[in-house]
Amino acid sequence: MTTQHVAAAQAAPALSFPEGFLWGSATAAYQIEGAVAEDGRTPSIWDTFAHTPGRVANGDNGDVADDHYHRFREDIALMVRLGLTSYRFSIAWPRITPEVTAERLGPVNPAGLGFYSTLVDELLAAGITPSVTLYHWDLPQALEDAGGWTNRATAERFGEYAEVVAGALGDRVPVFITLNEPWCSAFLGYASGVHAPGRTDAVAALTAVHHLNLAHGLAVAALRRAAPAAKVAITLNLAWVTPETASAADADAARRIDGLQNRVFLDPILRGTYPSDVLADTASVTDWSFVAPADLAVISAPIDALGVNYYSPTIVRHWTRERPKESADGHGDSATSPWVAGEDAEFPTQNGPKTDMGWGIDPRGLRELLLRLHREHPGLQLMVTENGAAFPDTVENVDGDRCINDVARSEYLRTHLVAVHEAIAEGAPVVGYYVWSLLDNFEWAYGYGKRFGIIHVEYTTLERTLKDSALFYAEVIRSNAVPRVLP
Ligand code: IFM
User: Fold this and answer.
1) Is there a domain that residue 485 lies in?
2) Is residue 306 part of a domain?
3) pTM surpassing 0.85?
């Protein structure tokens, strides 16, 4: 932009959001809580995975994480400073029914439920609406020992667990999200093996896809019974899949990836069928005989909203086999192709700005995804349940105060909020936006090396410091509007 353009943009009014738009931030239990052996919690697959040498960068694990389990009051006070109107967090299943097995849910642990009940009460007292995710990847280890998501019993126990949580919190929680990013659970957990439980088996991954979908459906039914007033949603990490060129081969590679990243979840949940092209693409791997006749009716029970997590675009190219495959890892997309979709799609390295994860930055994808969902599923409420960026932050001392001038993160948030604003202006019913993440935290296989927080956490002392992006976001919330350029 020229100086004149900047001046004009600064003078133009900021882009206002609808009245009542939810301004939130999100976290997940294993990434922030710590206290992994307290109050009756038993191990999850992430405890096991992180304690297996070589699985997580630097040997990091979630044993302490941000110690949110003990510091949640301090964290709520920070949310109040930011003016958040909603907070999305997840519940650790191994705290709620620590003795669950494939055969039975086991007794409910009052201390585990009590932690979340207090959290909900204190959020409400602070004027912050809780938005509760039931599953953000911390499967009880005992269930994995019996096959994990490849075992149908895991989905059945999940439905029962959902009923317990809804019965305890449903009088105060207005939004329940069944699963977070089942694509990651299935493909990163069971195909590429970079996430817990670390398996590399294409049949297992596709079986897990179905049992995750079934778990969602069983949880929807449980939530309707036990928390009839609550809104029910699922959060998917949908990809804005774009073929690299207009060639038919690239278009077909993009179709396959769209099938396995997006439609294998969207279609059963919102249309009650698995996409026929995905079944055909995967026929050499499995005949999908793990789908029982009544399952799709369960999976497609109506939901009230769809959560969308978006970080970066997915560019796909047909792989010609003439040279080694490229797999620029925009959010782990490369997990799908090599294991399941055949060996003919690759993810070419892109030029242009990237985050510390190496993920390309392109807010158009968020707008296009929201508009696609609006076109294909008119009337379905949408929430951006995660969006944000990792950058290598530097803590500076300014007049004795700790400061983190993370202008790149603020600009990432600003441009993606403009994209949400554009989607709303074109009719997409987007009701809320949650920054990932409230706090720097345990970034799964990357450990603590990647910082997504708008609040900095000094891991040696656990001291929290608002980054400049948090101050930027607070002003967006206060004005209910996003500026056209960074102030
Ligand atoms: O940290 C994760 C989160 O747990 C799920 N969505 C993507 C985030 C960034 O990788």
Assistant:
1) no
2) yes
3) yes
CATH number at residue 450: 3.20.20.80
Looking at the domain assignment, is residue 278 inside a domain?
yes
Q: Is residue 1 one of the residues assigned to a domain?
A: no
Query: Could you confirm whether 411 is annotated as catalytic?
Result: no
Q: How many CB atoms lie within 10 A of CB 105?
A: 18
Cα–Cα distance, 148 to 142 (Å, whole number): 8
pLDDT of residue 331: 43
Q: Provide mean pLDDT across the span 371-376.
A: 98
Whether 443 lines ligand 1, by a CB cut-off of 6 Å, is yes
If one counts every other C-beta atom within 10 angstroms of the C-beta of residue 230, the result is 20
H-run or E-run covering 457: strand 455-458
Q: Check pocket membership of 250 for ligand 1, CB cut-off 6 A.
A: no
For ligand 1, the distance from its centroid to the CA atom of residue 270, given in whole angstroms, is 24
Answer yes or no: is the C-beta of 436 below 6 A from any ligand 1 atom. Answer: yes
Please report which confidence band the pLDDT of residue 328 belongs to, taking 50, 70 and 90 as the band edges: low
Number of domains making up the chain: 1
| Residues in Cβ contact with 401 at an 8 Å cutoff, skipping those fewer than 6 apart | none
Considering only the C-alpha atoms of the chain, give the largest distance between any 2 of them, rounded to a whole number of Å.
68
Residue type, 385: T
Domain that holds residue 138: 16-478
| Catalytic choice (33, 181, 244, 422) | 181
